[in-house]
Structures are given as structure tokens and as C-alpha cells.
User: What shape does this take?
Amino acid sequence: MLAVTILGNNSAIPAFDRHPTAQVITLDDHLFLIDCGEGTQTQMNKYKIRRSRINHIFISHLHGDHYFGLIGLITSMGLLGRHQDLNLYGPALLKDIFDLQLRVADTQLPFNLIFHPLQEEGLLVKETRFQVDCFRVFHRIECWGFIFRQVRPPRRVNPEKARISGIPSSFFDRLKWGEDYETKEGTLIQNATVTDPAPLARSYAYSADTLFHLDIAVKVQGVNMLYHETTYLKDLEERARNRYHCTTIQAATIAKTAGVKQLLIGHFSSKYDKLDEFESEAREVFPNTYLALEGVSYIVP
Amino acid sequence: MLAVTILGNNSAIPAFDRHPTAQVITLDDHLFLIDCGEGTQTQMNKYKIRRSRINHIFISHLHGDHYFGLIGLITSMGLLGRHQDLNLYGPALLKDIFDLQLRVADTQLPFNLIFHPLQEEGLLVKETRFQVDCFRVFHRIECWGFIFRQVRPPRRVNPEKARISGIPSSFFDRLKWGEDYETKEGTLIQNATVTDPAPLARSYAYSADTLFHLDIAVKVQGVNMLYHETTYLKDLEERARNRYHCTTIQAATIAKTAGVKQLLIGHFSSKYDKLDEFESEAREVFPNTYLALEGVSYIVP
Assistant: This one.
């Protein structure tokens, strides 16, 4: 199970009851938070997302609509008595900001806040069931995208075939990772005879705020679902470029070029009340496009 | 006209759809903002308060539930093209925080943000129609209260009497300030014969987060309306003391000792879902007490 729940889909200024950027990734038993605009903790209350289940937070860049809610979330976690570690990934200067804010408030967090400054593209965190990579995008200031991938054993055991071949269930986990089995009698049971290839692990890429740039299609090549910003409709391509943002057509072009299965679009400018045209314009280029709507969870196909 | 509109009445953690502290003062044609917890700009949208009309913001102290919404409000003002000066009053370190946050975002505000660090008790700002004083309260970190006062000419002109006495309307403004008028024939018209004493100017005191301390009653003596925190009900007096906060009975005791006309209570702990008991307990000591409810404007009597 890999899904994304949208907590905020608007660009800089909150408007039309839309909120600044925040998304929660559900990856099997794990929750991750990507970006944390002002009011994210209130949106979590509204959509019943438990702060205590989040152990990893990823901040794409230091424009306020992507992180002004972070310090409030972190201090609330402390006030609620959190003890487990919290991993925070973001541009290096983020640490200076929350260190200062905690210091002036004379606040000691009751948990370890482990900060990981973003420095190089590539693997950021890998655990048994998931891995997260980061990549640079093209914005006015340093800005990062993230790819979340399920990690799966390469093969699935066929328990009936394995049993008939005399393989004990204690060996099944090694079968999943491709090992052959040798019986007491010295017979080699080839792995492929008792296992099937695992279903493909799913992946979700969040491309943050960026100029239109085909390099992004290379960086997110083949992910199952791509979130790409569409701050403006297609008629404002020049404004989008001047402000280091994208239009519907540009986002859809990235999705098509990258060969993703599904495109989610958001970061809508506060100048737009209605969002329908974002969807219809993007679908001209990439039909499997959906609006990122607040409170909705999108399951990665 | 002097009134206060409550945008947030809760203490540290947002809960039960209550928000962290923020209040808007309407003083004749002026709007002032006191404290600015996370989500204040969204509350302003909800209650139709125009950001552009606010020229003075007062921050009591640097606990997050009183200022985490400030940087978002300020940057939104910039994005909306504000040009007029904005005056900000708060503890000195507040400047370090917003300077850092603007710097990392590479943001240049299109207006002057004039910061006034709080240093001494007494007069903070005085203009033709109002003045604001600040005073220290007793919290875990440096913390300030504020008193907003209308400034009125001492007298009101009776236009009919003045006309009969031959005083031109161009002289009326000087009559308001108590001058006598000498006619062309040399007759002295005594001011009191053509004017009446002005109604008393109104005042509102905001006492911020504080321990129970009778000095506060001295500092806010005689104001028309006092806002005083009541983080806890009366049975939690020890907890209130340990956390530098007050109970209902303590807030009401300050109001009674200070001889104010009306008491407004707020900063309710997130442990309380219902608020009725706050009102009933405070009224045991000071009957003219009201709960500070979000979205409600209280007119200073």
C-alpha cells in the first residue's frame, strides 16, 4: 500500500479555503510528511492523521508556504509528550531557524530531533520496507524533490510447491530473497521452481516547486505516480517562467516524458477560485491526471 | 468605538477547533493585531478582517502559540503588494527570527517593516486618536501586556450655542481643546458656555500569559475592559502556578482588584473541550465576565 493524502494544495497565500503545501505519504505501516505549510497541524486534526505516527519529515525548500507550519508541529509533538526520534530532512539553514525558535522560547524538546541536511542527490534514507531518494529541482532558491519507493523482496514463495519440495517454512524468508535450497539428501531445489517474481514495488515522486525542465522527467523516470506543481494555467507560461513555476501543459509534459502511470497536480495559484481547468488542460497532454484535492487520499497504482 | 475581535482563544496546542492566541482591536478607524498564533491569517480570511488595514502588530512574548503565524502574515502582506509601513512591537529577539526567515527565502518585502523592541514599561505609541502602553507580566520568559486607549479632545462643541455666540466653525477645533473665543468686538466667550465635557475615552488591556500577580491589577487599574488569561479552572491552581499561568478565580480577582468594568477570559488549555465552567467560576468573583469566543467582537463598555 502506497498512498498520498493531500493536506494543502495551494501556493503562497491561503485562499478559497485552500491551504499551503503539505502531503502525508502512507507506505505500508509508515507515515511520512512532505512539506509543512502554516496550519498543517490543524489540517492533521481535521483529517485524523496522528502526529505521533510520523517519524520522518521532508522539507523541499525554505519558502514559507512549504515550512512555516513545521515549528508549530514540532513543538506540539513535544507538548504532547512524544519520546521517539523524529527525522527531519531539509536545506541546511532550516536547522538555524528551528534552533533559534526553540532557544528564544526556552523550550527543550522531550525527543531527539535528528536533522539531516540535504546535500547530494540520491539515497536519503533506506529501511527494511522503504527507501527515499532526493533530487534537485529548479527554483529561485535551493529546492528538492523526493521519491518514495516500497522495498520488496524480489520473489514470492509458493508455499504449496515449497512444502512438496520439503523446504521448511523457516527457510521461506531466504527463498524470498532468491536463495536455492539444498535438502538433507543433497538435492538442490532451484529457487525459481518454488517462487514467483514479486509484484513490482510502487513509487511516488514529489517534484516540489520548479521551473519547467525536462531533466525532472529523467530524475523521476518510471515512477508510478508523480506529483508535479501547476501553479498556473497554460496561458500564463511567461509568468510561470518568471516566477520559477510551471503550467498545466508543462507538468503534463514532464509526466508523459517520464512515462509515469499517473499524475497528480497542485500548488494552485491563489488567483484561481475554480480548479476544473487545471485538470482538463493537463489531460490534453497526459490523460491520467488528477487534481490534488485537500482531504483526499490517492492510492498509487 | 473600541472593540476586540477574538481570532484565537486557545493555549499552546490547537484543539476542538480553537486556535492559538490572536486578537484584533478596532479603535475608531484603526485596526491593531495583538499576538499572531499559527493560522491567524486564515482566521482573518474567515472573519473578513482585511490584512491591509493593520498598521501595528503587538507580540507579547516568544512562545510559539503567540507568534508562529506572524511570518506567514507578513510574507502574505508582501505578496499582496502592500506598500504602507508596518509597525511591529515585540521582544528584541523577534527581529532575529524574521530577519533569518526572510533571508533564507531570499525575500525582500515591498514595504517598510519597522520593528520596535519592547524595552521599558510605559508609552509605546501615540497618535492623534489613540495611544498604546506596554507593561511587564510574569511568565517563564520575557512577556508583555498592552493597554489601548482612545485619545479624545477634552470637550465637545455645542454648535448651536457656538453659532449664537458668533463663533465661526473654523474655530470649533480649538474650542474642543478648551480655548476661549474673543469676538471682533472684544467680548470673551468662555469655553464652558459653548462646549460640554467629552465622554470618557475607552481603554482595553491585554495582560498576555502570566502568573497570578496583584501587580497586574495596579498596571491595568481602571481600564474599561480587561482581557486576562485563564488557562485552567480553579481546581488546578498549583498546575497554573508551576506553568506560569492563571485560573478563573485568579483572573477574576485581578479584574475585581483593578476595578475594571468588564473582564474577558481566554487562553484555555487544550485539556478542556467545554468552556462553560470558565465563565461560571470567574463570575463567582467578578460577575461581568465573558468568555473570549472566536469570531466574536466585544465592544468595550
